[in-house]
Structure formats: structure tokens, C-alpha cells
Amino acid sequence: MLPTSRKHPLPAISAPQNLSFMTVLPASSTSESTRVCVFCSTISGHSPAHIAAAHSLAETLHTYGVQLVYGGGTTGMMGELAKTMVRLSGKDAVQGIIPRAVLGIERDVEEQKSKGLEKPTGWLSKLHRRGQRFDNWKGKTEAALVNEDVYGKITVVRDLSERKREMARLIATGGAGSGFVALTGGFGTMDEIMEVITLYQFGVHKRRVCLYNVEGYWDGVVQWMEGAIQQGFVREEMRGVVGVRDTAAGCIEWLERRENGKD
């Protein structure tokens, strides 16, 4: 059984870590709480099963006393996952990490209006297209775009690469059973999954990944991976690194069993 104590808050992220891509991350700590990083879309998808899965995963994380690390988005599956988790476990159990360039795009429109922004969506999108930095925005700060009481603690990083690196660091240093779960998503989610698996292969971290296979969404990826193993392009032992489960509890329990050398 995973630990149920929430006495260890998620560590503060005060500045970029400036770690190179291939730097070996610190080992897990018995003094830290279990953390799960969830990759998923900021879109809801056509089937209601995907949003239901996001709710189920948040509820399961809460039940097991696991802290959430996620991409900091406020819409679609990502937003529902974070809001549900904050409502159940509190904002200190949730850490969002979002690149500066997409901060304004993923902020909820009503939330921005409540902060006194005039025409926030169009204005922020225009800034994004021009490639301007949000920290140059006169009279406002990045914090003005964040409602941590709704979406959990938010850290703004430089770019997508730094986001993935910081996610990996938080999971690598988490307690027993920490790992990565992939809900349904598009190219961004696929990029995140493949990077953490690749980093595992290079020994950068020793955490597993579980694909939350809602309505068979990841079947094609699983089939590709099996073909790559059979043809000698992926090592056999990677079957023990990437799991596939069709329930939220199954995902969390698989991460725990692999951590303890079971299965």
C-alpha cells in the first residue's frame, strides 16, 4: 500500500535547475511523499470517458495519498484533473509546471477577467504570436494569471524542455511508488511520454511509466512497442518499464508494484 501521509509538501521551485539533458537525476528519498506526474491533453476529446478518467485518476491519487505533478494547464483533461485534485487534497498536493510562452493561452478566460485583464484571450494570444515575454508586461506579473486555489501551485519555466526536466526531477526525487502516468493526449503528451522513457533508458532516472488506456486509446502505441521489441530495436526489459492499465487504480498500483520489485 502506498503511503497515505501528506505531511511532506511538494518542494518549492525557486529557480531553473540548469541541468543538462543527460545529467543523472538524484535518487528517490524515503523522506519524500509519493508523487505521480500525469501527462494529458488540454482538450477534452469527443468521448466523455476521457474527462471521466481524469476525474477518476484525481480521486485515486487522493485516496492513495499521492501528490500530483502536471503541466499547469487549466482547460480540458488537464484542468479537470488539477481542479478535482485540489478540491480533494488541497493546493499543496498539486504542482503545475507551465512554460511562459503558453501561460496566457492555457489560463481560463473568466479567471483572467477576474484579475482585471481587458480582453485577455486575444491580447495574450497576440503577445504569444509576437514572441514577447510575459515578464515584460508592464504593471502585471505572471502571478496575476494564476489561481492556485483552483489549479494548485504553479511554477512558470522558460520552455517545454525545462518543464519536462523539472517534472522528471520531482518524480525522480519522490518517495516509493513515484512515477509517470499518461492519460489520453496528442503530440505534446506523446513527446513527454517518449522523453521520460528515453531518459530511463539512459539511466537519468529510474521511474516507470504507465499508460492509462481509456477506451483502447494507447493500443496502437503498445502494438508499436511490441513490434520494436520483436525486431530488436527496443530491449526486452522495457516491458517492465512501460505498463498499460485501463483503470486509475491499476495505474497507481502498477507503479507501486514495480517500485517494490513485484510482477
Describe this structure in words.
With 263 residues, the chain is an alpha/beta fold. It has ten helices and seven strands. It has helices at residues 48-64, 76-89, 100-106, 109-114, 120-130, 148-151, 160-172, 187-201, 219-230, 248-259, and strands at residues 35-39, 67-70, 94-99, 153-157, 179-182, 209-212, 242-245. Strands 4-3-2-1-5-6-7 form a seven-stranded parallel β-sheet, sandwiched between helices. Strand 5, helix 8 and strand 6 form a beta-alpha-beta unit. Helix 3 packs antiparallel against helix 5. The longest helix is centred in the first third of the chain and has 17 residues, at 48-64. The two termini are 15 Å apart.
Q: Helix fraction? A: 40-55%
In percent terms, what proportion of residues is strand?
5-15%
**What's the alpha carbon Rg, rounded to whole Å?**
18 Å
| Shape, principal axes of CA atoms | globular
Structural class: alpha/beta
In DSSP terms (H or I, runs of 4 or more residues), the helix count works out at 10
DSSP summary, beta strand count:
7
- The side-by-side strand order for the widest beta sheet comes to 4-3-2-1-5-6-7
Mean pLDDT across every amino acid position:
81
Biggest pleated sheet? 7 strands, parallel
**N-to-C CA distance:** 15 Å
H-E order = EHEHEHHHHEHEHEHEH
Task: List the defining traits of the structure above.
263 residues, 42% helix, disordered N terminus, 7-stranded parallel β-sheet, alpha/beta
